[in-house]
Amino acid sequence: MIETVQVTKTYGRVRAVDGVDLAVPEGARYGLLGPNGSGKTTLIRMLLGLVFATSGEISVLGRPVPRRLHEVLPDVGALVEGPAAYGHLSGRANLRLLDAAGRSVRRTRRRRVEEALERVGLAGVDARPVRAYSLGMRQRLGLAAALLRTPRLLILDEPTNGLDPQGIHEIRRLLLEVNAAGTTLLLSSHLLAEVEQVCTWVGIMDRGRLVGQDELAALQAPTGRVVLRSPDADRVVALLDGRVADRDGDRVAVIHPDAAALNAQLVAAGLRVAEIGAERRTLEQVVLAATGAGTDRMERR
Ligand code: ATP
C-alpha cells in the first residue's frame, strides 16, 4: 500500500528523514514508533504530498507520489497534526462541507455525515462551533472527516493525542473495526503500549532513520526461555540445576524451548506450578536493541 525507497528530507543541515525504506503491506495496522522529533510527522507529510522529499522515491497505492497524488488521494483518509476545520462552524457543518467538496452523492450526504459522527462518538454533538471544541473532540472530528469515504488506506499522525483514557479506548476500537472492514492503517505514535495493542506491523524511527521494521509477532519472537512461578521454587531450581537462568523469589527463568513440556516435567516430579509460559521480548526491549539507546524519550504507558 505504501513503499518508499531511500526517502530523505533535509531542512538546512537537519536530516529530518534520512534514507527511509518504508513498506506497508495491504491489510496491515502499521505503527510508526519513535520519540518526538524522530521524523514521523515529516515522513507522513511526504506520503500525503504535503511536504516534498529532498530525494528518494515514494509510492502510495501503487502510484508515484507526488506526481500522481490526485489519483491516490480519493482512496486515502488522513488525520495529520490537528485537523483543519472552520472554527466558526459546527462539526456537523464542517463535515457536510467536506463531503460536498468530494465526489460524493448529495442525496445520501446527511446520512453519511451522521454515520461518521456516530462512529467517532460525536453523534450527540450540539451546534457549538469547532473553535469551542476540546483537543479530543477536534481529534474525533478529524477522524470522522477521514472516514467520510471508506478509504483503502488511513494515515493518522498521533491519533490519540489529547484524548482521555476513555477516548483512547474508543478510537482504538474504531481503528480495529475499520481495519477489519478492509482499510490498511498507518499510524504514528510515541507510545509503546499503543503500538503494542493496536498494530500488527512496527517501524521504529530514530533520529530520521527507520532502524527496524517487521511484523510485531516476529519482533516479539520467543527468547528461548520459559518463565514460571512456583511455590516450590527451591525444588524447581534443584531439579533443573544448570538450566536455570534467573531466580527471583517464586519466579524462575529457565533456558528451555517448550513451556508445555517443562510444565509436564515439573508436575510429574510433584512440583506445583502457579504460572508458566514462553518468554517473549517486549516491544520496549526491541526498540532498545534497535536504537542502541534508552527509551527514555518514549513513554511506556
Ligand atoms: P513530533 O511527534 O514531535 O511531531 P516527529 O517524530 O514527528 O516528532 P518531525 O516533526 O518529523 O518529528 O521532525 C523531525 C525533525 O525535523 C525535527 O528535528 C524537527 O525539528 C525538524 N523539522 C520538521 N519540520 C521542519 C521544518 N518545517 N523546518 C525545519 N525543521 C523541521
What does this structure look like?
- 33% of the residues lie in helices and 28% in strands.
- It has eleven helices and 15 strands.
- The strands form three sheets. It has a six-stranded mixed β-sheet with strand order 7-8-9-4-10-11, sandwiched between helices.
- The chain is of the alpha/beta class.
- The protein has two domains: 2-219, Rossmann fold, CATH 3.40.50.300; 222-280, Alpha-Beta Plaits.
- Helix 3 (91-101) packs across helix 4 and helix 4 (109-119) crosses helix 5.
- The model has no long low-confidence stretch (mean pLDDT 89).
- The longest helix is centred in the middle third of the chain and has 16 residues, at 165-180.
- Adenosine-5'-triphosphate (ATP) binds at residues 11, 14, 16, 34, 36-42.
- Residues 11, 14, 16, 34, 36-42 line the site of adenosine-5'-triphosphate.
Across the major sheet, the strand order is 7-8-9-4-10-11
Q: Give the distinct bound molecules.
A: adenosine-5'-triphosphate
Mean pLDDT: 89
Spell the H/E element sequence: EEEEHEEHEHHHEHEHEEHEHEEHEH
The strand count comes to 15
Structural class: alpha/beta
